[in-house]
Amino acid sequence: MMILELKGVHRSYVKDRPVLNGIDLNVTQGEVIGLLGQNGAGKTTLLECLLGLRPADAGEVTLAGLDLRMQPRAALRVVGAQLQPSALQDKITPREALRFHAALHGVAADVAALLARFGLAEKADARFEALALVHRPALLVLDEPTTGLDPQTRRALHQILRDHRTAGGGVLLSTHDLDEAERLCDRVAILHRGRIVADAAPAALLIRASAGTRLRCRTAQPQSFPDFQSSADGLAHAAVAPEAARAIAALTRAVQEAGNTLVELQLTPPTLEDAFVALTGDAWDDKPEAAP
Prior knowledge:
Elements: E1 2-14, E2 17-28, E3 31-36, H1 43-50, E4 58-63, E5 66-67, H2 72-76, E6 79-82, H3 94-105, H4 111-117, E7 139-143, H5 151-166, E8 170-174, H6 178-184, E9 187-192, E10 195-200, H7 202-208, E11 213-219, E12 229-230, E13 236-241, H8 244-257, E14 262-268, H9 272-280
Helix pairs in contact: 3-4, 7-9
């Protein structure tokens, strides 16, 4: 079942300078979708448009089959969201916040269970990601939810997202943590200059981008190799190889024929950062996006 569908979504703040330029994106039951993009790519604007916080200039937003423009209250009941920054009342406790949001959505929530699940029972001033789950939504929309979290809490949140997916829910996760996206997401959508330029499984993105394996080696004696960049002393060598096995075979053969010795060899598999650079032509910015 399709939980979220965006068709041709446009949004501009300045005339003829679109932030979102015809966005098509969907989330179905039982999948986690990562949303990647540089600062200023429009990720926060996209999330706000699908949550009804900013009106789209054109296009359709459908949540569980409900048109957001025509049935906003009913459509948004299927969504749980956590955006940056949180805007809770001063001095509100986690218990009070959960009760407040349960009443807001008109549902009965097991507040004690949610506090225990997120490790908030003993932390009155902890973060409030639990609010997104208080009304048992079909779709979770999260904007940089792990920023600033310690490793243990980050792992716990990842498991909660996996559990939500296993239970048949969907997740749209905006993140700057590429390792997180690669390990957690079923698909990754890259938002670049107002458009979705790629939407596929992480492994498929690497294949599409032809992001090769990085090879680094050191030889006992100075030597040069075709397609490798060598250091000034001719001992250290580096290359990016689409076919690592073939490159290693050619390298070792050349070393043996020269009577040289290969003293060190490192292989680094391609990453989502490599794919992002290959698909967009821009360097990856690893800092979270600020809201406009």
